[in-house]
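User: Can you write out an input/output pair for a complex, sequences first and structure second?

Assistant: Here is one pair. Inputs:
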Amino acid sequence: MLQVQFIRQNKDLVLERLALKQFKELSVVDEVLSLDDRRKKLTLEYDETQAQVNVSSKEIGKLMAAGDKEGAESRKAAVATLKQRLQPINDELKQVEENLTLALYKLPNLPHSSVPAGKTPEDNVVVRSGGPMPTLHAGAKPHWELTSQYDLIDFELGTRITGSGFPVYKNKGAKLQRALIQYFLDYNTDNGYTEFQPPYLVNAESATGTGQLPDKEGQMYHVTEDGFYLIPTAEVPVTNIYRDTIIKESELPIKMTAYTPCFRREAGSYGKDVRGLNRLHQFDKVELVQLVHPDTSYDTLENMVQHVEKLILSLELPYRILRLCGGDMSFTSALTYDFEVYSAAQGRWLEVSSVSNFEGYQTNRLKARFKDSHGKSQLVHSLNGSSLALPRILACLLENHQTADGIAIPASLQPYFGSAKIG
RNA sequence: GGUGAGAUGCCUGAGUGGCCGAAAGGAACGGUUUGCUAAACCGUCGUACGGGUCAAACUGUACCGAGGGUUCGAAUCCCUCUCUCACCGCCA
C-alpha cells in the first residue's frame, strides 16, 4: 500500500497518477488524509492521558510504600476518572485505524512516469521484439492437436481426475516440462539468484502482504478448513520470506528464484482463451523475486527484462516486449513489462512473463525494510518476473518448432531433454 | 490425535506485581592501543506511532509469541489461540 506521508506530501501527483491507472474513486485520497489526521489527534490525546495514568500509578506505589493509605486511595479515584476518558478515545482510535487501513487497501500503486496512458491492452506499447518467426509447413497444427498426436498431454484425463484446466502431462510431454523447469532454474541460479522451494499454501497474512488479499480474493483457491490459500504464483511465498524483517543494507540486492505450481480459479474465462494450454487452473512457473535498494530498482527492472529476454531467445521463439499502459497494469505494480511469445499455429501472442517493479507498495504491507547509512529504516523495493510460465512456452515450442516429421528441440534445451526432437 | 514443557532484544539467557524497554555474556558496529594477526580497553548497539526541531537534541505512548482479562500498576497473575520442543500414537 501507499505510504500516507507520501500521499500527504504529494497529493496532486498522487491524484494524477491514480487517474493514469484509470482509478476512479479519487475521493479515497481525501478520506485517507482525513482519517490520518483524526488518527494523529486521537493518538496524541490518548498518549497524554495515558501518561497521566502512568505517573499517578507510580505515585500510588510510593504512597503505599510510605504507608499513606488515604493518599493512595484518593489517587486511585483520580486514575479511575482518567481511565473513563481513555476508553472512548481508544475505541474510536481503533475504528479509525481500521478504516484507514481499509482505505489504503483501496488505493492501487502509482504508475511510474514512463507508463503509457491508456485503458486497454491495445494501448500497451511494444518496446521491442525479436526471435525467429517460423514458417510453418502446410499441415501445421495448433498445440492441442500436437500434444495428442505425440501423446504428450491428456486434457480429458485431467478433466476426469479433477476438472477442466488440470491437464495430465505424460511421456515426452512430462519430460519436456521437467527439462524446462530444470533449465530455467539453472539459468537463474547461474545468474546469481538463490533457489527456494516454498510452501504452495499460504496464510492470509502472506496473501495480504503481496496484495492478493483483499483485492483479488476470488482468484485464489481457498482452503477454508485451515484458512490457507493455494498460491497463484511463487511471488506470494517467496516475497513473504522477508515479511517483518529489517535487512542489512549490505545484503541488498536479494535475488531469489523458485519453481512452483500455480493455482488460479480464473473465473469467467472461456472460449479460445482457455483452449489447450492457453489458460489453466494449475500450471508450473519459475519465478524471480528481487528485493533491492530503492535507488536502483529501475536498473534492476531493466536487468530482469534482459535476463528474461535472453532466456526466451535461447528457446528460439519469436517474442515481443510490451510496456503496459496505466489501465492494463496490475493493482500493485508501478511499471510492468509483459513478454509475449507468438503462437504460430494459433496466430496470436501469448503472455509468458510479466516483469514488474512494485517499488514500496508490497514492502509497505510486508514491512520489509533496510537500515540506510543514516541508521533510518526505509522500505526496500520489490520486483518480480516469470522466467518463465511453462504451459504457454510449451505450446509455442510445439507449434513453432513443428516440422512434417516431428518437433525440434532447441539446442539450449537438448542437454536437459536428452534428445533433439520429439517424434 | 494424546500427554508434558516452553515462547523474553541479532543469539544465549536472567527476570514471579511498581525501581524492567528489560541484567549478564556473546555477536555486530565505531574507537584507543598495536610491526601484522590476536588480545585488551572504551563506547554504540530494538521497533512502531506521536509531540518537538530547518535538522537534531529532547520527549510521550505501545510492544517481552498473538488476542482478551484482573489490578491504581503486568514480561511477571488468569483465560483463549498460535507456534516450538520432548515422548506416545499414526504416517509419506
